[in-house]
Amino acid sequence: MNSNEELKNLLDFDLLSKLVVGIGEVSEITGVPTRQIRYWEEKGIIHSSQEAEGTTRKYDYLNVKKIILVKELLDDGYTLDAAAKKVGDRMKLINEAFAKLAQRSE
Amino acid sequence: MNSNEELKNLLDFDLLSKLVVGIGEVSEITGVPTRQIRYWEEKGIIHSSQEAEGTTRKYDYLNVKKIILVKELLDDGYTLDAAAKKVGDRMKLINEAFAKLAQRSE
DNA sequence: CATCGATTGTAATTAAGTTGCAATCTCAGA
DNA sequence: TCTGAGATTGCAACTTAATTACAATCGATG
């Protein structure tokens, strides 16, 4: 049994993907003000799942992770666009790894 | 490098533990009506993190997992109390495994 | 000092969640 | 069939959380 299988037994990836939190929670977790999160979203850097206009935005694990990474780079002196690009590249890898793990859990 | 270390590199357990969702979300995920979730909580079977009276309940991964398991047993014919006990035992193991994984991530 | 990127403030509105009280539903046993 | 305990549900009145739109601010750079 390889490590991924062990992992799948412990962690329910299907559930993980459904754990979507509100913007207030994201703000508390990341330290980024809600206003700023919405701004990044306006700019197309973050993509929450918002069913329709006027309904509340929801953020999954990967969304929150991305916000954390962007914030780290901003704090480090990057411009928003540069940070977004850099994080985008890294998120690709994380997304792929997750996709693999989530595969057989359906 | 063992599987747990690989896992830690991929999954941010600190973040996972902070992903707490509202009761409406839990209801959608699990198929258990919000009213019923509150009832189970009243009975002491579920323990959401509710800062104070009147504020909204929040449920983390393990809470939601527990609700899913309880529901499965109920659907299978168990009484609520019996299901709660059975699930409680299983959650102990899951909790321990998570505690181990969450350790060095701080 | 004007411009641009980045962020922030706020009012008015809607969505989501809370409690408490009471009603209902199920079903095993007298 | 009646009944009582366990389990669930309905709902009104209320509070908290989140939404949008418009405008203001703030710092760095040419």
TrEMBL record, chains A, B:
<keyword id="KW-0238">DNA-binding</keyword>
<protein>
    <submittedName>
        <fullName>MerR family transcriptional regulator</fullName>
    </submittedName>
</protein>
<keyword id="KW-0804">Transcription</keyword>
<keyword id="KW-0678">Repressor</keyword>
<keyword id="KW-0805">Transcription regulation</keyword>
<feature type="domain" description="HTH merR-type">
    <location>
        <begin position="23"/>
        <end position="89"/>
    </location>
</feature>
<dbReference type="InterPro" id="IPR047057">
    <property type="entry name" value="MerR_fam"/>
</dbReference>
<dbReference type="Pfam" id="PF13411">
    <property type="entry name" value="MerR_1"/>
</dbReference>
<dbReference type="InterPro" id="IPR009061">
    <property type="entry name" value="DNA-bd_dom_put_sf"/>
</dbReference>
<dbReference type="GO" id="GO:0003677">
    <property type="term" value="F:DNA binding"/>
</dbReference>
<dbReference type="InterPro" id="IPR000551">
    <property type="entry name" value="MerR-type_HTH_dom"/>
</dbReference>
<dbReference type="GO" id="GO:0003700">
    <property type="term" value="F:DNA-binding transcription factor activity"/>
</dbReference>
